[in-house]
């Protein structure tokens, strides 16, 4: 999918900085004769893009497909494709298989990523609870 690119040459750092400062407080954005009410999340995204441009960085806006191939989903999760297939077959992620190929909804990937942090946190708490408070001892093997 093609990306839309914004670079510091499209908008000066000073102008980007000015816009980033005011976009946070604006609930309505007007361009020409068109005014649109923007949610707080939308304003936060615009502010982040403007701050990156003000810092001299290029920004790419890439459309996200609603359904992903197993390789695309694996790339987003930073796992191999066979590992993703194993997660699918274990039921950790829901998927569709309209023909031969599996398709994973982007919303399912987003849900899995959000829940992964909680699973890790719970696992670490459970591990910490297994200790009896005593200091580990080092045993010499030589």
From TrEMBL:
NCBIfam families: excise. InterPro entries: DNA-bd_dom_put_sf, HTH_17, SinI_DNA-bd. This is Excisionase family DNA binding protein. Residues 67-116 form the Helix-turn-helix domain. GO terms for molecular function: DNA binding. It comes from Allobranchiibius huperziae. It comes from the Bacteria.
């Amino acid at each position: 999918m093609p990306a839309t690119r914004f670079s510091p040459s499209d908008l000066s750092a000073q102008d980007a900085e000015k816009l980033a400062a005011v976009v946070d407080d604006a609930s309505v954005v007007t361009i020409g004769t068109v005014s649109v009410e923007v949610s707080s999340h939308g304003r936060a995204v615009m502010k982040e893009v403007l701050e990156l441009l003000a810092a001299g960085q290029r920004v790419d806006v890439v459309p996200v497909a609603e359904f992903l191939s197993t390789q695309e989903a694996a790339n987003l999760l930073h796992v191999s494709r066979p590992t993703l297939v194993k997660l699918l077959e274990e039921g950790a992620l829901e998927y569709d298989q309209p023909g031969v190929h599996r398709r994973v909804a982007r919303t399912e990937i987003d849900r899995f990523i959000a829940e992964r942090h909680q699973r890790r946190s719970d696992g670490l708490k459970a591990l910490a609870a297994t200790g009896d408070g005593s200091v580990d001892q080092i045993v010499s093997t030589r």
